[in-house]
Predict the 3D structure of the following.
Amino acid sequence: MLAACGLALGQLPLAEPTAAVTQENPYLVGAGVADMTGEPAEVGFMGYGDSSQTGTGLMNRQFARAFEVKDPASGQSNLIVVLDQLTATESVRDEVIRRVQQQWGSDYGESNIMITASHTHAAPGGVTRYSLYNVTTLGWHQDTFEATVDGAMEAINRAHADLAPGNLTVSQSKLTGVGAQRSAEAQANDPAYLTDELVDGADPTNITLRLERDGQTRALINWFAIHPTSLTSKNTLVSTDNKGYAQWLIEHEDHGVDHYSGAGDGFVAAFANSNTGDVSPNTNLRPGSGPTEDQVENMKIQGTKQADAVRAQLVENGDPVGQGLDSAIHYADFSNIPVMPKFSGTGKVQHTCDASLGQSFAAGSVEDGGGGLDVFGEGVGANPFFGALAEATYKISPELKECQAPKDNLLAVGAVDAVQEKLPVQIMRFGDYYILGLPGEMTGAVGVQYRKDMAELFGVDESHIIVQGYTNAYAHYVTTPEEYDAQQYEGGATIFGRYSMGAFRQVLNTVGLSMRENRELELGEKAPTPATVSSAQGKVLYDLPGAGKQFGEQTVAPADTSRGETVSAEFVGAHPNNNLKHGGSYLEIQRFDGQHWVYVTGDNDPETTFSWQRRLAAQSRVTISWNIPADAEAGTYRIVYHGDSKDSSGKITPFTGTSSEFQVK
């Protein structure tokens, strides 16, 4: 059985497994999951670029999920980590590699460690060293960074401790009617050979890698292209959005997994992302709208559709991946790549550009919302006033203007090292299936092109190529040249210019050829680590309960409540950033069984919310709510709050608050 999430697992020795593999179980496979929740209060979220979106609590926790596979026949190992975060970042990747090598030596390194993310827009930022992404967090957040890396390492350790003979299979289906094409005007310019593989403008590819023991799936990674932006920029509770809800359904609902109590059979389910760049979950093409007008309900609906697609796949046996593992990675400077005619699409050598964001980027994605400014619009020539300013500005750099055309440049982010330009492209092989680890947000059509290219290179069907975004670093968007010319939001955010897609095609070809021909591939040039400015955002000086109050004291009592409705209690609280509660919970819902109070659920349940509010300079109020499930057992309940206060000397002291009893009817 795969390792559960109990705290003791992190202490397991990392001895190599000794059980023998067989023809039916040719690999050693393991999976693990660990809490990586960042600072939930007063820290800016990374994703929408909206400075007003700072955390006020928790809807559900962030987790890292790790999957390790070893091939005893060759000695090759592959390790994939999926984070509940907007994207993998260079800072997290570098530190994870450093710690893994420190622990296990040179068996693991740049090429066979792949770190990716689900792309939730509802999690704290400040974990990349590139300044553009830390604007909304006012700089670097060491506590959230450490939470991310510690969670990733704990998940990796648990996956390693869990290694045992098993097999890898793949199942696939087409999932439609979930996301909506949010950039139809740009996609209309694409050639038919790319768009013919899309359904209503979205890629329906739904593929699942299954880790099996004795023919039973015990862990999985699913890839499906959709933005986790069901929750809008107005949401300030940490959440893993629709992909996180799908993970919770498979792990908790189907396998009884509870990451706080340790219950369940240890099943690990990660929902990663793919060529998601132009697919919105908001099917009415307005933030928080579609399928309903309730953003939380939309999150659940879109997550359930993804979970149901995997459930349907698991009814049938998967297809064995075949034999052998491999991996390769290469860093390239995407600001200065001559794109050869084979990949440029023009029959000529073309060039990428110094990174620049266009004026249509500043408009934001109107379908998903965020930090876009009303004074900007999408499309070529949509911003004449700012275009005139840019015309004057870029007289200083006519080369950038010409290279980025028809983009109206707004921010020359490459010139000031505000974004990463030397980026990794990675391929992992599992049998005759290939995962393309790319650092950007590829549109649907771009993903189709990459599948075609790599299927031809490796001599496999396109269904054996998995396109994975948000991997190892972040490079903004990648559009087709035709989409770029339309300069919608996605084109304005394609930072390396019109031939970005061709540049990634070319580097993928380089990495793929080295793998196909079993040639050593040089790592390439990595960017130097930028300096960081630490943020004071979310830092706690001290907590005070208020005159005549005590920490944990109930200030609003819960009422008797019927199933299907919401019950709440309010407490005198303290700042939640004092203790991120990894492996724990800020709250418990408890039921009286006639003799004892028994645990029902905690803060990772999407039906609970932990909301924090600052009062005066150092006082806090905490509201805990529970949407009581329709199938909840009737009886006597209470709400328990677990907090930690900091005094003026910096000492942190835990406390517990308990609500009055209430009846669930």
